[in-house]
Amino acid sequence: MWKQSKWIAVLAVTLAGPAMAGTLPSLPNPPANYPTGELGRLVKLGEDIIMHTDTHPLTKDLVGNKLQCTSCHLQGGRAKTIGTFIGTATAFPAFSKREKTVQTLQDRINNCFMRSMNGKRPIIDTEASVAMASYVTWLSEGLPVAMNAQKPVTPYYSGTWPDKEVVPLIKKATHANYLNGQKIYQQRCQSCHGENGQGAGNFPPLWGNGAYNTGAGMSKLEKMTSWLEPNMPAGNANLTKQEAVDVTLFIDAQPRPSFNLQDHLLPKSEMGYYNSKVLKEKHDVRSNFKIFGLDVDAIRGDRRIR
Ligand code: HEC
Ligand code: HEC
Fold this sequence. Notes:
By secondary structure, the chain is mainly α. The protein has 2 domains: 25-138, Cytochrome c-like domain (Cytochrome Bc1 Complex, Chain D, domain 2); 166-260 and 282-300, Cytochrome Bc1 Complex, Chain D, domain 2 (Orthogonal Bundle). 37% of the residues lie in helices and 3% in strands. It is built from 12 helices and 4 strands. It has helices at residues 2-16, 37-51, 105-114, 127-138, 166-171, 175-188, 190-193, 221-231, 241-252, 268-271, 285-290, 296-300; strands at residues 94-96, 101-103, 259-260, 282-283. The strands form 2 sheets. It has a two-stranded antiparallel sheet with strand order 1-2. Strands 3-4 form a two-stranded antiparallel sheet. The longest helix has 15 residues, at 2-16. The radius of gyration is 19 Å and the shape is globular. It starts with a helix and ends in a 6-residue tail after the last helix. Mean pLDDT is 91; it is low at 1-22. It binds heme C (2 copies).
């Protein structure tokens, strides 16, 4: 497969040179050695799940799309860029406005299954849940604990995440920005992510049934733009802020699964304790655009797609 070998070449360049668009240079390198014994086994198991979430025997039934955690948390969260897991564990327990409770690292990880993975929330303290939390915690070994009373994200990027400068650019967007985004997609994204955003092989889907749903961080326009800036195109992140906004508008306006929180919880008898005071939450493509005062029909310039 030429696409795959092209990606390997890109990755080789990325790993070799300073071209990696690291925006968090103050982060230390991830630890060199795994812990020993049973803890080491769990850390490695967690890493395996994060790299192969949709096919791993412990999580495949909980994933509803074709993504892995590493699709967005690059190199399994070892990359020093937006999405890194280096430092993440230092922030937990942390308050979350979304759930209106203090979240543990396991809560935070497991909630991604409902949104980014369009699946079901794993049960806290099951082997998969403990393993993923062990791996993510290992990546913060030696870093000082820093409670976060505002949001459940690492203190290493709570100031830069999301990029506030993109918000005014999103708010004034029009159909012309969408068309420019489509052009950027075709010229700089499509070769890996596919003509219809469906992905292929190691290239993850961006829209359609194999992609993240409308409750995922990536479906919120300012978050996707902020993530794209340092990370895409893979190995050669070079979008200007405006280009990142335009291609975000194009991608997040495409059809994807709508989010209804209740559909992503296991039956009550199985789900264990769900640490949230919010039990109803719904989003769709339309409502995600409305947050910025945008009408998605006008942005698409097409009233037929719903
Ligand atoms: C489609 C992209 C995507 C996928 C796939 C994804 N995430 Fe995330 N994740 C994000 C984004 C974007 C954020 C930031 C969210 C926010 O601020 O709302 C995030 C945040 C997190 C955080 C908090 C990060 C921090 O440093 O504070 C954790 C932990 C996390 N994700 C774990 C996971 C795990 C584990 C998986 C796999 C089960 C996963 N994510 C899959 C996009 C993704
Ligand atoms: C050289 C191939 C390549 C190109 C070109 C590329 N990507 Fe990616 N993209 C990837 C890979 C590979 C990943 C998953 C990360 C990993 O596995 O390391 C990814 C992940 C993503 C993700 C998060 C995962 C998901 O599926 O939701 C988004 C969003 C994304 N790319 C958007 C873009 C956009 C927008 C462009 C064009 C500006 C682009 N990509 C260009 C290879 C590419």
